[in-house]
Amino acid sequence: MRAWLWMFVVVGLTTVAMIRPEPAQAWGRYGHLTVCDLAYRNFTPATRDAVAALLQSRNGGVLVKGRGRMADRRYTSFNLGCLEEDALPRRHAEDHFINVARTVPAITGASCPPSGECILAGITRDLDILKDPARSREERAFALMALGHWVGDIHQPLHISYADDRGGNGIDAKLTGKCGTSPYRVENLHAVWDNCLLEAGIFERVRKRADFKKSWGPRVRTY
């Protein structure tokens, strides 16, 4: 199990290393893709093989049947799989964040609400599933994809935030100009953090790099 534990240490370190990372999509689509892609690039060959086997990357990937009018989804790589927890209807709507009172001096697992649902509980649950050989391959694949998403979310400051303003969702914000290439209409501080600081900040600078098309262009990667 060391490979799995090391894998998520890498995910965490990679995320922390990124500068400036709605409740709909914490970090936005490209933020999650980037976090998990950078993590994958740091995996050992053995871990990459284990991830490929779990996600059936060489056999069509993980297929998720869309509900109602939602289209089917297929994940052939780790970073694409990290988007699944934002697909509607959400599997674990309350696991993307934890909001606490401003008087709370430190956040621990005990800070989760009485329902037991919060991002810390989600990480613990899915890590336990991933490590359990008695679980089915499908269960462990979804746990892997969810963990990549949770580790991205937990490093967005407003996903570990205050209940009285709902993690910045209750703070109005107006943006002059576009939010990078994102079509999202910014209306609150949380959305600025999730999308604009990345799209209009990091990604805008990256797109201007001379080597963008060669080394950064395919932000949606398959392996």
Question: Your description of this structure?
Answer:
The chain has 223 residues and is mostly helical. The chain has one domain: P1 Nuclease (Orthogonal Bundle), CATH 1.10.575.10. 45% of the residues lie in helices and 5% in strands. It has helices at residues 2-17, 28-41, 45-55, 78-81, 119-131, 137-154, 189-207, 212-216; strands spanning 62-64, 73-75, 98-100, 160-162. Strands 1-2 form a two-stranded antiparallel ribbon. Strands 3-4 form a two-stranded parallel sheet. A hairpin with an 8-residue loop joins strand 1 (62-64) and strand 2 (73-75). Mean pLDDT is 82; it is low at 9-25 and 219-223.
What's the gist of this structure?
The chain is mostly helical and 223 residues long. The chain contains eight helices and four strands. The chain has helices at residues 2-17, 28-41, 45-55, 78-81, 119-131, 137-154, 189-207, 212-216; strands at residues 62-64, 73-75, 98-100, 160-162.
Name its key features.
223 residues; two-stranded parallel sheet; P1 Nuclease; disordered C terminus; two-stranded antiparallel sheet; 8 helices; 5% strand; mainly alpha
Topology:
Elements: H1 2-17, H2 28-41, H3 45-55, E1 62-64, E2 73-75, H4 78-81, E3 98-100, H5 119-131, H6 137-154, E4 160-162, H7 189-207, H8 212-216
Parallel strand pairs: 3-4
Antiparallel strand pairs: 1-2
Helix pairs in contact: 1-2, 1-6, 2-6, 2-7, 5-6
